[in-house]
Amino acid sequence: MTPLVDTLRQLRYLIAHLDDETLHSEYPAMSEFLNSNRLGDQICLDELKFLYQFLYVYGRKSEATFNRFRNEIERFHLWSWLVQEKSVFELKREDIEAYVDFVVEPDKTWLADSVQWRFKNHQGTRQVNPNWRPFVHKENGVSQQTLASMFTALNVFYKFAILEEKSFANFVPVVKKNCPYLVVQSQIKLPDTLSDLQWEYVFGVTKDLCEENPKLERNLFTLACLKGLYLRISELSERPQWSPVMSHFWQDQDGFWFLRIMGKGNKLRDVTLSDEFVEYLKRYRQSRGLTSLPRVDEPHPIIHKLRGQGGMNVRQLRRIVQESFDLAIDKLKQDGFSEESENLEAATSHWLRHTGATHDAQTRPLKHLSEDLGHSKIATTDQIYIQTNIKERAKSGVKRKL
Predict the structure, then answer these.
(1) Which end of the chain is more exposed for a tag (fewer CB within 10 A), N or C?
(2) Structure pTM?
(3) Rounded to whole angstroms, how far apart are CA atoms 291 and 285?
Protein backbone atom coordinates (compact mmCIF):
# COMPACT_ATOMS: atom_id res chain seq x y z
CA MET A 1 0.00 0.00 0.00
CA THR A 2 1.70 3.18 -1.21
CA PRO A 3 0.54 6.76 -0.68
CA LEU A 4 0.24 8.83 -3.85
CA VAL A 5 0.62 12.35 -2.47
CA ASP A 6 3.22 13.87 -0.16
CA THR A 7 2.89 17.14 1.75
CA LEU A 8 1.76 20.47 0.29
CA ARG A 9 5.38 21.65 0.36
CA GLN A 10 6.48 18.64 -1.68
CA LEU A 11 3.65 18.91 -4.23
CA ARG A 12 5.51 21.09 -6.73
CA TYR A 13 8.47 18.68 -6.63
CA LEU A 14 6.14 15.77 -7.33
CA ILE A 15 4.70 17.61 -10.33
CA ALA A 16 8.22 18.31 -11.59
CA HIS A 17 9.24 14.65 -11.17
CA LEU A 18 6.29 13.52 -13.28
CA ASP A 19 7.06 16.10 -15.96
CA ASP A 20 10.76 15.17 -16.02
CA GLU A 21 10.12 11.42 -15.64
CA THR A 22 12.38 11.32 -12.58
CA LEU A 23 9.85 10.02 -10.04
CA HIS A 24 11.88 6.82 -9.58
CA SER A 25 14.88 8.73 -8.25
CA GLU A 26 13.01 10.54 -5.44
CA TYR A 27 10.00 8.27 -4.81
CA PRO A 28 11.16 4.77 -5.75
CA ALA A 29 8.34 2.94 -3.93
CA MET A 30 5.65 5.05 -5.59
CA SER A 31 7.28 4.59 -8.99
CA GLU A 32 7.43 0.82 -8.52
CA PHE A 33 3.78 0.77 -7.45
CA LEU A 34 2.69 2.67 -10.58
CA ASN A 35 4.75 0.44 -12.86
CA SER A 36 3.26 -2.74 -11.38
CA ASN A 37 -0.37 -1.59 -11.51
CA ARG A 38 -2.63 -3.71 -13.71
CA LEU A 39 -4.13 -0.65 -15.36
CA GLY A 40 -0.77 0.22 -16.84
CA ASP A 41 1.73 2.79 -15.67
CA GLN A 42 0.82 5.39 -18.31
CA ILE A 43 -2.86 5.54 -17.28
CA CYS A 44 -1.87 5.82 -13.63
CA LEU A 45 0.78 8.45 -14.35
CA ASP A 46 -1.69 10.55 -16.37
CA GLU A 47 -4.31 10.34 -13.64
CA LEU A 48 -1.75 11.05 -10.93
CA LYS A 49 -0.60 14.13 -12.83
CA PHE A 50 -4.20 15.34 -13.01
CA LEU A 51 -4.65 14.62 -9.30
CA TYR A 52 -1.62 16.81 -8.53
CA GLN A 53 -3.01 19.53 -10.77
CA PHE A 54 -6.33 19.41 -8.90
CA LEU A 55 -4.63 19.60 -5.51
CA TYR A 56 -2.42 22.46 -6.65
CA VAL A 57 -5.43 24.49 -7.79
CA TYR A 58 -7.68 23.78 -4.81
CA GLY A 59 -5.18 23.18 -2.03
CA ARG A 60 -2.46 25.80 -2.31
CA LYS A 61 -4.50 28.53 -0.58
CA SER A 62 -4.83 26.51 2.62
CA GLU A 63 -2.86 23.56 3.94
CA ALA A 64 -5.95 22.33 5.78
CA THR A 65 -7.93 22.27 2.51
CA PHE A 66 -5.04 20.51 0.78
CA ASN A 67 -4.86 17.84 3.47
CA ARG A 68 -8.60 17.26 3.42
CA PHE A 69 -8.80 16.88 -0.36
CA ARG A 70 -5.56 14.88 -0.48
CA ASN A 71 -6.82 12.27 1.96
CA GLU A 72 -10.17 11.83 0.24
CA ILE A 73 -9.06 11.82 -3.41
CA GLU A 74 -5.90 9.80 -2.80
CA ARG A 75 -7.75 6.84 -1.32
CA PHE A 76 -10.44 7.14 -3.99
CA HIS A 77 -7.75 6.73 -6.67
CA LEU A 78 -6.19 3.79 -4.85
CA TRP A 79 -9.58 2.09 -4.56
CA SER A 80 -10.40 2.72 -8.22
CA TRP A 81 -7.07 1.30 -9.40
CA LEU A 82 -6.68 -1.60 -6.96
CA VAL A 83 -10.24 -2.73 -6.21
CA GLN A 84 -12.25 -1.83 -9.32
CA GLU A 85 -9.19 -1.90 -11.59
CA LYS A 86 -10.58 1.05 -13.52
CA SER A 87 -9.56 4.57 -14.35
CA VAL A 88 -11.29 7.12 -12.11
CA PHE A 89 -12.75 8.60 -15.30
CA GLU A 90 -14.33 5.29 -16.29
CA LEU A 91 -16.28 4.87 -13.05
CA LYS A 92 -20.08 4.85 -13.33
CA ARG A 93 -22.82 5.50 -10.78
CA GLU A 94 -22.76 1.94 -9.46
CA ASP A 95 -18.98 2.18 -8.99
CA ILE A 96 -19.32 5.33 -6.87
CA GLU A 97 -22.00 3.55 -4.83
CA ALA A 98 -19.61 0.65 -4.33
CA TYR A 99 -16.93 3.07 -3.16
CA VAL A 100 -19.30 4.57 -0.58
CA ASP A 101 -19.95 1.05 0.72
CA PHE A 102 -16.19 0.53 0.93
CA VAL A 103 -15.69 3.78 2.90
CA VAL A 104 -18.37 2.71 5.37
CA GLU A 105 -16.73 -0.70 5.80
CA PRO A 106 -13.13 -0.71 4.46
CA ASP A 107 -11.11 -3.86 4.01
CA LYS A 108 -9.02 -4.45 7.14
CA THR A 109 -5.81 -4.30 5.11
CA TRP A 110 -6.68 -0.68 4.28
CA LEU A 111 -6.94 0.34 7.95
CA ALA A 112 -4.31 1.76 10.31
CA ASP A 113 -4.75 1.99 14.07
CA SER A 114 -3.68 5.64 14.11
CA VAL A 115 -2.77 8.52 11.80
CA GLN A 116 0.63 7.78 10.25
CA TRP A 117 3.19 9.81 8.33
CA ARG A 118 3.46 9.04 4.61
CA PHE A 119 7.05 9.75 3.57
CA LYS A 120 10.30 10.82 5.16
CA ASN A 121 13.78 11.51 3.84
CA HIS A 122 16.13 8.54 3.79
CA GLN A 123 19.46 8.47 1.94
CA GLY A 124 18.36 11.02 -0.63
CA THR A 125 14.93 9.52 -1.33
CA ARG A 126 11.44 9.83 0.13
CA GLN A 127 10.84 6.60 2.05
CA VAL A 128 7.31 5.21 2.47
CA ASN A 129 6.04 4.43 5.96
CA PRO A 130 5.05 0.72 5.83
CA ASN A 131 2.43 1.36 8.55
CA TRP A 132 0.55 3.97 6.52
CA ARG A 133 -2.93 3.06 5.32
CA PRO A 134 -5.63 5.08 3.50
CA PHE A 135 -8.10 4.77 6.40
CA VAL A 136 -7.82 5.01 10.17
CA HIS A 137 -9.81 2.57 12.29
CA LYS A 138 -12.59 4.17 14.34
CA GLU A 139 -14.46 2.32 17.06
CA ASN A 140 -17.83 3.89 16.22
CA GLY A 141 -17.51 3.50 12.47
CA VAL A 142 -17.70 6.19 9.84
CA SER A 143 -19.22 9.49 10.98
CA GLN A 144 -21.69 11.70 9.15
CA GLN A 145 -18.99 14.36 8.90
CA THR A 146 -16.62 11.90 7.23
CA LEU A 147 -19.27 10.93 4.68
CA ALA A 148 -20.10 14.57 3.99
CA SER A 149 -16.39 15.39 3.48
CA MET A 150 -16.01 12.45 1.11
CA PHE A 151 -18.97 13.54 -1.05
CA THR A 152 -17.77 17.15 -1.10
CA ALA A 153 -14.26 16.19 -2.20
CA LEU A 154 -15.46 13.81 -4.92
CA ASN A 155 -18.02 16.31 -6.20
CA VAL A 156 -15.42 19.09 -6.45
CA PHE A 157 -12.95 16.73 -8.12
CA TYR A 158 -15.37 15.62 -10.84
CA LYS A 159 -16.59 19.18 -11.43
CA PHE A 160 -12.97 20.19 -11.98
CA ALA A 161 -12.44 17.19 -14.27
CA ILE A 162 -15.43 18.23 -16.39
CA LEU A 163 -14.10 21.78 -16.67
CA GLU A 164 -10.73 20.39 -17.76
CA GLU A 165 -12.46 18.02 -20.21
CA LYS A 166 -11.09 14.92 -18.50
CA SER A 167 -14.57 13.65 -17.66
CA PHE A 168 -18.04 14.18 -19.10
CA ALA A 169 -20.16 13.03 -16.17
CA ASN A 170 -20.40 13.56 -12.42
CA PHE A 171 -22.40 10.84 -10.69
CA VAL A 172 -21.57 12.03 -7.16
CA PRO A 173 -24.68 14.23 -6.55
CA VAL A 174 -27.14 11.46 -7.45
CA VAL A 175 -25.24 8.91 -5.34
CA LYS A 176 -25.24 11.30 -2.40
CA LYS A 177 -28.96 12.01 -2.78
CA ASN A 178 -29.77 8.30 -2.56
CA CYS A 179 -27.06 7.31 -0.05
CA PRO A 180 -28.55 5.04 2.66
CA TYR A 181 -25.83 5.98 5.15
CA LEU A 182 -26.45 9.73 5.24
CA VAL A 183 -28.83 10.89 7.94
CA VAL A 184 -31.08 13.81 7.03
CA GLN A 185 -30.31 16.61 9.45
CA SER A 186 -32.85 17.45 12.12
CA GLN A 187 -34.83 20.65 11.81
CA ILE A 188 -33.07 21.81 14.96
CA LYS A 189 -29.29 21.81 14.69
CA LEU A 190 -27.51 23.78 17.36
CA PRO A 191 -23.76 24.50 17.09
CA ASP A 192 -21.39 23.04 19.66
CA THR A 193 -20.93 25.63 22.41
CA LEU A 194 -19.69 25.90 25.96
CA SER A 195 -22.33 26.37 28.63
CA ASP A 196 -22.25 29.61 30.63
CA LEU A 197 -20.73 27.68 33.54
CA GLN A 198 -18.07 26.02 31.38
CA TRP A 199 -17.03 29.34 29.84
CA GLU A 200 -16.96 30.96 33.28
CA TYR A 201 -14.54 28.29 34.46
CA VAL A 202 -12.40 28.18 31.29
CA PHE A 203 -11.87 31.94 31.27
CA GLY A 204 -12.06 32.52 35.03
CA VAL A 205 -9.64 29.79 36.14
CA THR A 206 -7.08 30.89 33.53
CA LYS A 207 -7.45 34.50 34.66
CA ASP A 208 -7.12 33.61 38.35
CA LEU A 209 -3.91 31.66 37.72
CA CYS A 210 -2.25 34.43 35.71
CA GLU A 211 -0.88 36.09 38.85
CA GLU A 212 1.10 33.02 39.91
CA ASN A 213 1.85 31.93 36.34
CA PRO A 214 2.25 35.01 34.08
CA LYS A 215 2.68 32.89 30.92
CA LEU A 216 -1.05 32.16 31.15
CA GLU A 217 -1.69 35.77 30.07
CA ARG A 218 -1.13 34.41 26.57
CA ASN A 219 -3.78 31.73 27.15
CA LEU A 220 -6.21 34.33 28.48
CA PHE A 221 -5.81 36.58 25.45
CA THR A 222 -6.10 33.65 23.03
CA LEU A 223 -9.41 32.68 24.64
CA ALA A 224 -10.58 36.30 24.41
CA CYS A 225 -9.76 36.39 20.68
CA LEU A 226 -11.48 33.12 19.82
CA LYS A 227 -14.62 33.76 21.83
CA GLY A 228 -14.85 37.56 21.82
CA LEU A 229 -13.94 38.07 18.14
CA TYR A 230 -15.47 34.80 16.81
CA LEU A 231 -12.13 33.81 15.25
CA ARG A 232 -11.27 30.47 13.74
CA ILE A 233 -8.03 29.24 15.26
CA SER A 234 -6.38 29.28 11.83
CA GLU A 235 -7.08 33.02 11.63
CA LEU A 236 -4.83 33.60 14.64
CA SER A 237 -2.06 31.36 13.29
CA GLU A 238 0.94 32.19 11.17
CA ARG A 239 0.54 30.93 7.62
CA PRO A 240 2.69 31.15 4.48
CA GLN A 241 0.58 33.99 3.05
CA TRP A 242 -0.34 35.78 6.28
CA SER A 243 1.28 36.57 9.62
CA PRO A 244 -1.09 38.12 12.21
CA VAL A 245 0.78 41.03 13.80
CA MET A 246 -0.16 43.77 16.25
CA SER A 247 -0.41 46.42 13.53
CA HIS A 248 -3.47 44.54 12.23
CA PHE A 249 -5.32 46.11 15.16
CA TRP A 250 -6.38 49.56 13.99
CA GLN A 251 -8.56 52.46 15.13
CA ASP A 252 -10.79 54.59 12.94
CA GLN A 253 -11.34 58.34 13.20
CA ASP A 254 -14.29 57.86 15.54
CA GLY A 255 -12.24 55.86 18.02
CA PHE A 256 -13.62 52.40 17.18
CA TRP A 257 -11.14 49.52 17.16
CA PHE A 258 -10.94 46.72 14.57
CA LEU A 259 -8.78 43.69 13.83
CA ARG A 260 -7.92 42.90 10.22
CA ILE A 261 -8.14 39.15 9.62
CA MET A 262 -7.42 36.89 6.67
CA GLY A 263 -10.16 34.27 6.73
CA LYS A 264 -11.19 31.31 4.60
CA GLY A 265 -10.47 31.68 0.91
CA ASN A 266 -7.84 34.35 1.65
CA LYS A 267 -10.62 36.91 2.24
CA LEU A 268 -9.78 39.91 4.38
CA ARG A 269 -12.28 41.25 6.88
CA ASP A 270 -12.23 43.75 9.73
CA VAL A 271 -13.67 42.42 12.99
CA THR A 272 -15.05 44.93 15.47
CA LEU A 273 -13.58 45.05 18.98
CA SER A 274 -15.70 45.54 22.08
CA ASP A 275 -14.63 47.91 24.85
CA GLU A 276 -14.09 44.91 27.14
CA PHE A 277 -11.88 43.19 24.59
CA VAL A 278 -9.74 46.33 24.24
CA GLU A 279 -9.10 46.17 28.00
CA TYR A 280 -7.84 42.59 27.65
CA LEU A 281 -5.74 43.65 24.67
CA LYS A 282 -4.10 46.30 26.88
CA ARG A 283 -3.58 43.77 29.69
CA TYR A 284 -1.96 41.25 27.35
CA ARG A 285 0.32 43.80 25.72
CA GLN A 286 1.46 45.14 29.09
CA SER A 287 2.28 41.57 30.17
CA ARG A 288 4.59 41.42 27.14
CA GLY A 289 6.26 44.71 28.00
CA LEU A 290 4.60 46.56 25.11
CA THR A 291 2.71 49.84 25.10
CA SER A 292 -0.95 49.54 26.08
CA LEU A 293 -2.24 49.92 22.50
CA PRO A 294 -0.71 48.88 19.15
CA ARG A 295 0.99 51.25 16.72
CA VAL A 296 0.25 51.26 12.99
CA ASP A 297 3.72 49.89 12.15
CA GLU A 298 4.10 47.33 14.94
CA PRO A 299 5.57 44.01 13.70
CA HIS A 300 5.10 41.91 16.87
CA PRO A 301 3.03 38.72 16.37
CA ILE A 302 -0.43 38.85 17.94
CA ILE A 303 0.09 35.56 19.80
CA HIS A 304 3.78 35.29 20.65
CA LYS A 305 6.05 32.34 21.25
CA LEU A 306 7.66 32.07 24.68
CA ARG A 307 10.79 30.86 22.94
CA GLY A 308 11.90 31.74 19.45
CA GLN A 309 10.67 34.24 16.91
CA GLY A 310 7.48 34.59 14.93
CA GLY A 311 3.89 33.68 15.57
CA MET A 312 2.17 30.45 16.52
CA ASN A 313 0.95 27.69 14.22
CA VAL A 314 -2.46 26.02 14.55
CA ARG A 315 -1.15 23.05 16.51
CA GLN A 316 0.55 25.30 19.08
CA LEU A 317 -2.56 27.45 19.47
CA ARG A 318 -4.74 24.39 20.01
CA ARG A 319 -2.33 23.29 22.72
CA ILE A 320 -2.74 26.66 24.48
CA VAL A 321 -6.54 26.38 24.39
CA GLN A 322 -6.45 22.78 25.57
CA GLU A 323 -4.28 23.80 28.53
CA SER A 324 -7.00 26.20 29.69
CA PHE A 325 -9.70 23.58 29.04
CA ASP A 326 -7.79 21.07 31.18
CA LEU A 327 -7.43 23.57 34.03
CA ALA A 328 -11.18 24.21 33.92
CA ILE A 329 -11.99 20.49 33.75
CA ASP A 330 -9.99 19.83 36.92
CA LYS A 331 -11.57 22.76 38.75
CA LEU A 332 -15.10 21.75 37.73
CA LYS A 333 -14.46 18.26 39.10
CA GLN A 334 -13.16 19.69 42.36
CA ASP A 335 -16.25 21.86 42.72
CA GLY A 336 -18.64 18.98 42.12
CA PHE A 337 -19.73 19.79 38.54
CA SER A 338 -18.88 16.34 37.19
CA GLU A 339 -21.30 16.44 34.22
CA GLU A 340 -20.08 19.86 33.05
CA SER A 341 -16.51 18.61 33.44
CA GLU A 342 -17.13 15.50 31.34
CA ASN A 343 -18.87 17.49 28.61
CA LEU A 344 -15.98 19.96 28.47
CA GLU A 345 -13.59 17.10 27.72
CA ALA A 346 -15.22 16.83 24.26
CA ALA A 347 -14.82 20.54 23.48
CA THR A 348 -12.48 21.91 20.81
CA SER A 349 -11.13 25.39 20.19
CA HIS A 350 -13.81 25.97 17.52
CA TRP A 351 -16.49 25.78 20.20
CA LEU A 352 -15.27 29.17 21.43
CA ARG A 353 -16.20 30.83 18.12
CA HIS A 354 -19.65 29.21 18.28
CA THR A 355 -20.04 30.18 21.93
CA GLY A 356 -19.32 33.85 21.30
CA ALA A 357 -21.52 34.07 18.21
CA THR A 358 -24.45 32.19 19.79
CA HIS A 359 -24.36 34.43 22.85
CA ASP A 360 -24.16 37.67 20.85
CA ALA A 361 -26.83 36.59 18.35
CA GLN A 362 -29.39 37.45 21.01
CA THR A 363 -28.43 41.15 21.02
CA ARG A 364 -26.55 42.07 17.82
CA PRO A 365 -28.05 42.77 14.38
CA LEU A 366 -27.75 39.69 12.18
CA LYS A 367 -25.86 41.53 9.43
CA HIS A 368 -23.27 42.90 11.87
CA LEU A 369 -22.73 39.46 13.41
CA SER A 370 -22.45 37.85 9.97
CA GLU A 371 -19.78 40.30 8.81
CA ASP A 372 -17.70 39.86 11.96
CA LEU A 373 -17.94 36.09 11.57
CA GLY A 374 -16.77 36.32 7.97
CA HIS A 375 -19.77 34.52 6.47
CA SER A 376 -20.22 35.18 2.77
CA LYS A 377 -23.99 34.79 3.12
CA ILE A 378 -26.15 36.19 5.90
CA ALA A 379 -28.32 33.08 5.57
CA THR A 380 -25.42 31.01 6.93
CA THR A 381 -25.39 33.05 10.14
CA ASP A 382 -29.15 32.84 10.38
CA GLN A 383 -29.15 29.07 9.94
CA ILE A 384 -26.37 28.38 12.47
CA TYR A 385 -26.92 30.92 15.23
CA ILE A 386 -30.42 32.37 15.14
CA GLN A 387 -32.80 30.12 17.05
CA THR A 388 -35.63 32.61 17.75
CA ASN A 389 -38.21 30.71 15.69
CA ILE A 390 -37.37 27.49 17.53
CA LYS A 391 -37.75 29.20 20.90
CA GLU A 392 -41.06 30.76 19.92
CA ARG A 393 -42.30 27.41 18.59
CA ALA A 394 -41.31 25.75 21.86
CA LYS A 395 -43.12 28.41 23.89
CA SER A 396 -46.31 28.07 21.85
CA GLY A 397 -46.20 24.29 22.09
CA VAL A 398 -45.38 23.82 25.75
CA LYS A 399 -48.93 24.51 27.03
CA ARG A 400 -50.91 22.45 24.53
CA LYS A 401 -53.25 19.86 26.02
CA LEU A 402 -53.49 16.15 25.38
Answers:
(1) C
(2) 0.66
(3) 7
